[in-house]
Amino acid sequence: MAKRKQAVGDRISEAEHAVMEALWDASPLSAADVCDRVCAANDWSIPTVKTLLSRLVSKGAVGTEPEGRKFLYHPLIERSDYVGGESRRLVDRLFGGRAAPLFAHLAENEALSDDDLAEIEALLREMRK
Amino acid sequence: MAKRKQAVGDRISEAEHAVMEALWDASPLSAADVCDRVCAANDWSIPTVKTLLSRLVSKGAVGTEPEGRKFLYHPLIERSDYVGGESRRLVDRLFGGRAAPLFAHLAENEALSDDDLAEIEALLREMRK
DNA sequence: CGTATTCGATTACACCTGTAGCCGTTACGA
DNA sequence: TCGTAACGGCTACAGGTGTAATCGAATACG
How many CB pairs under 8 A join A and B? Predict the structure, then answer.
C-alpha cells in the first residue's frame, strides 16, 4: 500500500516548500536548525519559520518528535511525491498533460544545458530497452 | 516599507490563467464570450469572470478596446512567455534549474506517453544537428 | 530558589485569490 | 420616449499566505 499522499486542498505553499527542502535535506531538525538553513536565504526570522513549520504539521506534511523539551521536525511526505505532483500539475495545466511540449519549450528557450541533453538522451536510451 | 505598485510582471493566478487561455485561444472577446468558454468548465458565474478580467487588466496582462458600449479583451502577454516563465520557475524551484531531473521524474512516473517519447527523440535529433 | 531564557502555541495582520453581489449608466426595443 | 436588460466598475468577504510579535510554560543559570 502506498503511503498516504497529501490531501487535496492541503497544498504546500512556496514558502512552506523552502522549509520542506531543508527537512528533506536533513532531518530531523529543530525549528532553529531549519532557520539556520533557510532564514538567511529567504530573509526570514525565526517566528516565520515556526509558523511555516506549524502549518506544515497541521497539513500533515511534517511530523514532530520530542527531543528533550523541544521538537524535532521531519518530513512525512516524500520529496519525490511532492515534486512529481507539482510537475504533473504544471504539465497538465500548461501543456494539456503532455510532456513533449514542455520539453520543446525548455529547448526553445535554451533552458537545457548540454548536460541536460546528454542526460535526457541517456534516459531515453534506458527507456528504450 | 510601502507596498509596491502593481505593474507588468505580477503573477497570474490559476483562475486568471484559465481566462488567459480563453483569450489566447481567441481574441478579442467580451466578458460574456470569455464566460461562454470557461464558466461551465470551472463552475463560475459571469461576475467571477469579470473580476478575473479586471485583475488581469490591472496586472497588465490583458488589454481592452471599446466595442460599442462594451469592452473587448485581448491578451497583452504571449502564451509562450507565460508558459516559459512558469516552466522555468518550476524547474528552478524543484530541480535546481536543471531540466534533466524533471524529465527523469516524468519518466519515472510514467507521465510520458510513447508519443511524448517519440517527439522528444525527434526534438533531440533536431537539436543535435 | 528565583529569574532570565527558550520554545512551542496563540494571535495578528495585510495582501492575494476565489467567488460573487450590487449599482449606475446606457443602448435598444416597445 | 421610457423602461429594461446589459455592461463595466466598485464592493464584499472568507480562506490562504507571508511575515512576525507576544504569551505562557518549562528550563537552565546563578
Answer: 106
Domain ranges of chain B: 14-75, 79-128
Q: Name residues of chain A where pLDDT drops below 50.
A: 1-6, 8-9
Helix (H, G, I), strand (E, B) or coil at A26: coil
Within A 66-95, residues with CB less than 7 Å from strand D: 68-69
The ipTM is: 0.84
Q: Which nucleotide is nearest to B47 (CA to C1')?
A: C20
* Digit-coded pLDDT (tens) for A112-129: 888 888 988 998 888 876
d(C-alpha A23, C-alpha A51), whole Å: 15
Fold of B79-128: Penicillinase repressor fold (1.10.4040)
CATH architecture of residue range(s) B14-75: Orthogonal Bundle (1.10)
